Amino acid sequence: MVGIFYACFRQNAYLCRPNLNWFVNLMNKKHIFFGWLAALLLFASCQPKSDLSRIDALRKQVNKDAKVLNDLNANAFMQLEKDFVACDSSLQYLPEEQLDVVFPKLQLVDAYIQQFKETRPVMQAEMDSALMRLDLLRNDAATHYLADSLVSAYIDDETRQVEKLSSQVEYFKDRLGSCREELDSIKKTK
């Protein structure tokens, strides 16, 4: 590249002078400073993207858990409750020895049904709150409103909260599934 400038300068110094000035201006301290500044900003902007991707992954998990919770409520729970009422009303027709086996199972199913009825609205509210907090945290991280260390600490807190919600959803998914099996076995004994 330097050879081209040198050859051009030797043949026609007047015409090549603007190109040579451009080359000299490129090497000016201002350009070096702004080049380093741009590189620094590019490097610094790479760090929050991992934070942003962690926040997006948490949002995705909360949305997935909310969908599972709504599906449990709409499908499994409603049918489970209807079947429980049907089995409960048929207890009077069972012989005494079967009643001793079936009644504790129905009590356990009833306890899980009541637990789900009481816990589901709380879980839904916690999920809505978690989504709102994650939206705000994502906005603060993207605009660099909070320090990176503080964003990481908040992400760790939100991760623990999302994991807690996920484990609660899995618990009820498992419990309602076992209740379904218990009621099916009770229906067969009638």
Verbal overview:
This protein has helices at 2-11, 13-26, 29-89, 96-142, 148-189. With 190 residues, it is mainly α. The model is unreliable at 1-9 and 13-18 (pLDDT under 50). It is 92% helix and 0% strand. The protein has one domain. The protein is built from 5 helices and no strands.
Form type: rod-shaped
Overall pLDDT level:
81
**Proportion of residues in β-strands:** under 5%
Number of strands: 0
> In the residues, how many domains can be counted?
1
* N-to-C CA distance: 93 Å
Oligomerization state: single chain
Q: Level of helix content? A: over 70%
Tell me the Rg in angstroms: 33 Å
Biggest pleated-sheet summary: none
- Structural category: mainly alpha
The total count of helices amounts to 5
Question: Helix and strand string, N-terminal first?
Answer: HHHHH
Low-pLDDT windows of residues: 1-9, 13-18
Topology:
Blueprint (H helix, E strand, L loop, with lengths): L1 H10 L1 H14 L2 H61 L6 H47 L5 H42 L1
Helix pairs in contact: 1-2, 3-4, 3-5, 4-5
